[in-house]
Amino acid sequence: MKVIAAYLLAVLGGNTCPSAADIKDILGSVGAEADDDGIKLLLSEVEGKDITEVIAAGREKLASVPAGGGGAVAVAAAPSGGGAAAPAAESKKEEKVEEKEESDDDMGFSLFD
């Protein structure tokens, strides 16, 4: 990611075709190590391409990826109505009863239980 970020910073700075040395300089300026293999791979993938078109194509691909899988479960559970709320209310009542029972004894110091 840092190699891609350095490449994009160079492009934003006005360098339409950053070289490996440009990317290394940017990474070195912030104390990050430059991964030569990652730089070569990135430059080979974007060679001869407009970066705005590459980003646009990536956004289209990401738009088709499903995200947040937990949402469907919550939506499916919502139409059940008050059925789920009733057991929750019962368990709260049970907890209150248990707490009351505990407070009635002699704080657990009974020697003959």
From TrEMBL:
<dbReference type="InterPro" id="IPR027534">
    <property type="entry name" value="Ribosomal_P1/P2"/>
</dbReference>
<dbReference type="GO" id="GO:0005840">
    <property type="term" value="C:ribosome"/>
</dbReference>
<dbReference type="InterPro" id="IPR044076">
    <property type="entry name" value="Ribosomal_P2"/>
</dbReference>
<dbReference type="Pfam" id="PF00428">
    <property type="entry name" value="Ribosomal_60s"/>
</dbReference>
<feature type="compositionally biased region" description="Basic and acidic residues">
    <location>
        <begin position="90"/>
        <end position="99"/>
    </location>
</feature>
<comment type="function">
    <text>Plays an important role in the elongation step of protein synthesis.</text>
</comment>
<keyword id="KW-0689">Ribosomal protein</keyword>
<feature type="compositionally biased region" description="Low complexity">
    <location>
        <begin position="78"/>
        <end position="89"/>
    </location>
</feature>
<comment type="similarity">
    <text>Belongs to the eukaryotic ribosomal protein P1/P2 family.</text>
</comment>
<protein>
    <submittedName>
        <fullName>60S acidic ribosomal protein P2</fullName>
    </submittedName>
</protein>
<dbReference type="InterPro" id="IPR038716">
    <property type="entry name" value="P1/P2_N_sf"/>
</dbReference>
<feature type="region of interest" description="Disordered">
    <location>
        <begin position="78"/>
        <end position="113"/>
    </location>
</feature>
<comment type="subunit">
    <text>P1 and P2 exist as dimers at the large ribosomal subunit.</text>
</comment>
<keyword id="KW-0687">Ribonucleoprotein</keyword>
